[in-house]
Design a protein that fits this description.
- With 412 residues, this protein is α/β, with parallel strands linked by helices.
- The chain folds into 3 domains: 6-31 and 312-376; 45-73, no CATH class; 75-307, Spore Coat Polysaccharide Biosynthesis Protein SpsA, Chain A (Alpha-Beta Complex).
- Helices cover 52% and strands 11% of the residues.
- It has helices at 6-24, 43-49, 56-71, 89-100, 119-127, 148-159, 179-184, 206-224, 240-245, 259-267, 290-303, 310-341, 344-371, 378-401; strands spanning 79-83, 108-115, 134-139, 164-168, 172-174, 193-196, 198-200, 235-239, 273-276, 283-285.
- The chain has a 7-stranded mixed beta sheet, sandwiched between helices.
- Strand 2, helix 5 and strand 3 form a beta-alpha-beta unit.
- The longest helix has 32 residues, at 310-341.
- The protein is elongated.
- Residues 82-241 form the Glycosyltransferase 2-like domain.
Length: 412
């Protein structure tokens, strides 16, 4: 029967308040800024898009405004892009032209550093050898005792003509030919690092898109608060002079993966990092295989033990997941117990708090995902949120069972 004594009312109000408050302890509730980017329109393009019936005076004004916009375009530095394929000849053939054909007003070069015995990659590079932006070099076969990826990046940096260098993965491709401009506009005097946003292509399974963005929101918030910890993205610009002065990857050379994480963790200080997440400045990563997806998680669990500020970084995700699971557990226990005991007022309150939680979390998540052009059906969001912690536990168990020598190049 329905009862309205003080205890019942207090329990009911507490259930509703907890539902409201825990819904706000949520990465989707915390605002993440999206950079705005507009490529100036040239006078020629303005003339072509002017309506034929538009008065001549208005057309002249439109062209004049366009020219002013071009004059106000910031000076973009010459820049070097480093790609380090390893048995990725197919991806190189597909994506290399997208980097070589960037619309960039200043000079740029694309350096491809590949293993010396990778003949398929060599054949691909020969096809593009005439491109003036391309330069290629190779890793010696005798290199040992350090990550091949880190060695390739180091060789690429030393070969770079320009101070600003971007390292990117060849299994990622720019969304358009203005990607380099979007990244480079952040290369200012007071910056040492520029991180470019990356997301999976649309064909990627929905859960993987969800998890990647869910985790990335914590990183993006840290960037905005000048507390950079790591880099789960696949585009990172940095200064060659700083890299050489600080001896590159010294301190983590033996770890096979984690180049982006180690770079940001080591070099980011205060406000010297800029983050570019406009649609134009986004890289699209090809759908990862099951092996790549699993190894990404396992290598991160190894690498984070060697990163600074790991406890501070992990605190907020733990709070969010505790609030998420604790709220649902409380609601389910209250609902089941009140139904068994015939406490219908509390049962209704528990049911309403559960509905309130679901609605709030769905609305927040859909809105946040939509801003980043990630389309995930609403009915999948709640199960995916709950799955984050349990899948993480599964990866952790696999990591503890793994041979730790698999994560380093020193096989002692």
């Amino acid at each position: 029967m329905f009862a309205f004594d003080y205890t019942t009312i207090i329990i009911s109000v507490v259930l509703l308040l907890i539902a409201l408050l825990t819904s706000l302890i949520n990465p989707f509730f915390r605002k993440v800024r999206i950079a705005e980017y507009g490529v100036p329109t040239s006078a020629t393009e303005s003339e072509e898009t002017i309506d034929e019936e538009e008065p001549a005076e208005e057309a002249d004004v439109a062209i004049a405004e366009s020219i002013v916009s071009d004059e106000q375009q910031p000076n973009l530095p010459p820049i070097t892009i480093i790609l380090t394929p390893h048995d990725n000849a197919q991806e190189l053939a597909k994506n290399l032209p997208l980097y070589l054909n960037q619309d960039y007003p200043t000079d740029f070069q694309v350096i491809v550093v590949a293993p010396q015995n990778d003949h398929e990659t060599g054949d691909v590079l020969k096809r593009f050898a005439a491109n003036p932006h391309l330069y290629s070099t190779f890793i010696p076969e005798s290199s040992r005792y350090m990550s091949k990826k880190k060695l390739a990046i180091t060789l690429g940096v030393k070969a770079a003509k320009y101070d600003w260098v971007i390292m990117a993965d060849i299994n990622c491709y720019p969304t358009n030919d203005n990607w380099l401009q979007a990244i480079a506009r952040n290369c200012k005097e007071n910056k040492e690092l520029v991180v470019g946003y990356t997301r999976y292509e649309e064909e990627t399974p929905a859960y993987r898109q969800f998890e990647r963005h869910y985790i990335a929101r914590y990183i993006m918030r840290e960037y905005q608060r000048n507390k950079a910890y790591a880099c789960p993205f696949n585009a990172l610009a940095f200064r060659k002079a700083t890299f050489l002065r600080e001896e590159g990857f010294r301190g983590n050379l033996k770890y096979i993966r984690g180049e982006y994480d180690f770079m940001v963790n080591k070099y980011a200080k205060g406000s010297n990092l800029a983050f570019e997440n406009s649609p134009e400045g986004t890289l699209i990563e090809e759908t990862p295989t099951e092996k790549v997806w699993l190894s990404t998680h396992l290598f991160y669990m190894e690498n984070r033990q060697h990163l600074q500020r790991t406890p501070q970084h992990r605190l907020l995700p733990y709070i969010d997941q505790t609030a998420l699971h604790g709220n649902y557990l409380l609601q389910c226990v209250a609902l089941a117990g009140s139904l068994l005991l015939g406490m219908w007022t509390i049962a209704v309150a528990a049911g309403l708090s559960l509905i309130l939680t679901i609605i709030l979390r769905l609305v927040m998540a859909k809105k946040a995902l939509r801003r980043f052009d990630i389309d995930i059906p609403a009915w999948k969001i709640i199960p995916y949120e709950l799955a984050i912690a349990w899948k993480h536990l599964g990866y952790k168990l696999k990591y503890h069972r793994a041979d730790k020598y698999d994560f380093i190049s020193h096989k002692l």
